[in-house]
TrEMBL record:
UniProt record similarity statement: Belongs to the glycosyltransferase 2 family.
Residue ranges of domain Glycosyltransferase 2-like in the record: 13-219
Organism the protein comes from: Desulfotomaculum copahuensis
One matching Pfam family: Glycos_transf_2
Keyword Transferase carried by entry: yes
Ranges that cross the membrane: 289-309
Entry keyword set: Glycosyltransferase, Membrane, Transferase, Transmembrane, Transmembrane helix
Highest taxon of source: Bacteria
Keyword field contains Zinc: no
InterPro entries recorded: Glyco_trans_2-like, Nucleotide-diphossugar_trans
Protein name: Glycosyltransferase 2-like domain-containing protein
GO molecular function: glycosyltransferase activity
């Protein structure tokens, strides 16, 4: 986007979603300026924001001397649009009139990148992250070390964990198909920097995930039926079936603003619903049986009683709505 360095020759398209979060987005873009961005293009998808996000980001780009173009979603997907004018823009803003969700919002950016930018790598990056200057170079290096790598992800710190900046949120992820649980490794631990080796993991957290374009060509885009949550797990498992691995890169670092809103009632709906979608798509018969038994004997009671005790009726209602929809999909659809 701005500064010139020689060592990053690979072409990278960075896809960032924004929904009423222009301040976070601008901080994220500002941190990206410190990286080697000689051959990179940022594609910002505005998911129907109502806080003048696009205007504020355009003002920031103008002040920061970042070449920028903005386009409505309908033109971005139109095959007759002349895209030649976008090739030299370092920041492209695609404006959607509605919230497309994490999966389809990123898919819009991926399709546009493949059609216009033709990158070697795609980076999905949350707008509420701040990146280290060397994070991208070190992620790309992982693909040299592991030729069969499909995805690579950084060490993700909490942006602010009770005043601390060295508390880990994710060091890659693990999936337990027998219980239907997916969890971040080393979550809420203080980084001791005592193990800086690459690790092969089950999935890379969706806040920052780098992938080779050829992986998309083999496994397809994010599954839009998820809308939000579990889609990156599904992506990594689909790639694994094709022989690709997911690599955690501890020397690549970002900081993620883990918002309290992540545990809001709407998100609880998607989390429980999508768990059933993921398991139905990816688990074998024996794993599905043990998952279902575990869910009703353990998980359901812990979660539901927890909401009851705390008198969180909105969350309990969303939990049951997600559970009902998940059951319908689990038994009758997909």
């Amino acid at each position: 986007m701005v500064r010139r360095f020689s060592y990053l020759s690979h072409k990278v398209s960075v896809i960032i979603l924004n929904w009423n979060g222009c301040e976070d987005t601008i901080e994220c873009l500002t941190s990206l300026q410190k990286c080697d961005l000689r051959n990179i293009q940022v594609i910002l998808i505005d998911n129907g924001s109502e806080d003048s996000s696009v205007e504020k980001v355009l003002a920031w780009a103008n002040k920061s001397h970042v070449s920028t173009l903005d386009i409505d979603h309908k033109y971005a997907v139109n095959q007759e649009t002349d895209f030649r004018c976008f090739h030299n823009s370092k920041l492209i803003i695609i404006k959607s009139k509605k919230n497309l969700g994490f999966a389809e919002g990123n898919n819009v950016g991926i399709r546009f990148a493949l059609k216009v930018s033709k990158p070697d790598y795609l980076l999905l990056l949350n707008n509420d992250t701040v990146v280290d200057a060397n994070f991208l170079k070190r992620l790309i290096n992982a693909f040299t070390v592991f030729p069969n790598a499909g995805f690579a992800g950084p060490k993700v710190y909490y942006y602010d964990y009770f005043g601390q900046k060295n508390v880990i949120d994710s060091a890659g992820g693990k999936i337990d198909f027998w219980t239907g649980r997916a969890f971040n490794l080393m979550s809420r631990t203080i980084d001791q920097r005592d193990d800086e080796q690459y690790k092969i993991v089950d999935f890379i957290q969706g806040s920052c995930i780098l992938l080779q374009v050829k992986v998309i060509q083999e496994i397809g885009l994010l599954d839009q039926q998820y809308f939000a949550y579990w889609e990156e797990c599904d992506w990594c498992i689909r790639a694994k079936r094709k022989g690709y691995i997911s690599v955690y890169v501890p020397t690549s670092m970002i900081w993620h603003k883990i918002a309290a809103s992540n545990k809001g009632s709407k998100n609880i709906y998607w989390l429980i619903r999508n768990r059933f979608i993921f398991m139905k798509k990816n688990a074998n018969t024996f794993q599905l049986v043990t998952f279902y038994i575990f869910f009703w004997l353990v998980h359901f009671w812990i979660q539901a009683l927890g909401f009851l005790v705390k008198k969180e009726t909105d969350k309990l209602s969303s939990y049951f709505k997600g559970l009902i929809e998940g059951q319908k999909i689990f038994f009758f659809r997909l």
